[in-house]
Amino acid sequence: MKTFSDLVSKNSVSGFEAAARESKANKAWLDTSFKIALLILARLKALGWKQTQLASAMNVSPQYISKIVRGKENLTIETIAALEQVLNIKLIQVESFALPKILVTPSSNWFPGMEVKVNGENATYPATTRKSYKPEEDNKLSLPSAA
Amino acid sequence: MRFIPIFEQPNGKLFTVHYDNEEQDAFQQLFENWEDPEYLFDFFTKYEEDLNGDFYQNTIEEAIHHTREDAELLKEALLQRKDEGKLIDQNDFEALFKPLSTNEYTFKFHKRHKAYGPMSNSWLRIYAIKIEDNFIITGGAIKLTKTMQERPHTQEQLSKLNRVINELQAQGIFDADGLTDN
């Protein structure tokens, strides 16, 4: 009598595990491409565009756009920039250095009263730190005395 | 249709169906859909009304992220169990799969079952036929309504469950050992 195990295909297994392990290994960029894909899909909907229109505007194939909106394309910065330009949206934001910014204040012994302007505004630069310096301590420096 | 094991392992209890003319088997296809931004965007746009219905109150964006996270948790749990060698623990599956409906007892063989996603209030469903201690996964769905009959995509899953039962019966399979309980 035939049993269920007789019906099971030999030498065949679901593609689930291989696909799951691959997506796990690539999770870092897949998470980002997933979010980018959603932004593109929402933008296309808002513009009333079809994916083929985006492909034409980008001068790429519809298949390539399809791969992007399925989150399967490991996008280059160049492609992201082109998408941002064509769709007129921001897809990713790169943080600047996390250093605090300070207003440049000219020290009293360096062109007193001068303001540094960049594009008409007071220029700011990342703060720098230095060890406290006490000029009087210089006086204490001396060569090792001869034995 | 073909029946294939979900994991390559001896004495495995989980199987799935590879339907004719489908590129992927039913189980792989489920996760492919639940992690596909385009599929999820189109799906929740189509059923946006259900996201503001009797059971759920979510935006499309929330629904998309919720679904993906739920699917990832489920996937990760399965991989972990596989790696720990615990995927043949019958008690696990009995706890995971529940009878599809309260009148499932009317089916002598091939009882239809469902499993939920791991997150609380999960709308993910995995559907399976139980043959003795084996589960044959026929498909799954994002279920946003009370009954499966209310939406075409869940109705389709009901049809798939019944198609698989018909196939098993046509092949003379009434339980894992081929016994007919006479």
Brief overview, please?
The complex is a heterodimer of chains A (147) and B (182). Chain A contains seven helices and four strands.
H and E order of chain B: EEHHHHHEEEEH
Q: Which two chains touch over the largest interface?
A: A-B, 30 and 42 residues
Oligomer: heterodimer
Helices and strands of chain A: which structural class? mainly alpha
Q: Which strand order does the major sheet of chain B show?
A: 1-2-6-5-4-3
Shape of chain B: globular
Estimate what percentage of residues of chain A fall within beta strands: 5-15%
> DSSP helix count of chain A?
7
For the largest beta-sheet of chain B, the strand count, sense and barrel status come to: 6 strands, mixed
- Helicity level of chain A, as a percent range? 40-55%
Strand/helix succession of chain A:
HHHHHHEEEEH
Please report the distance between the alpha carbons of the first and last residues of chain A: 106 Å
Low-confidence stretches of chain A: none
Question: Which strand order do you get reading across the main beta sheet of chain A?
Answer: 1-4
Q: How many angstroms separate the termini of chain B? A: 28 Å
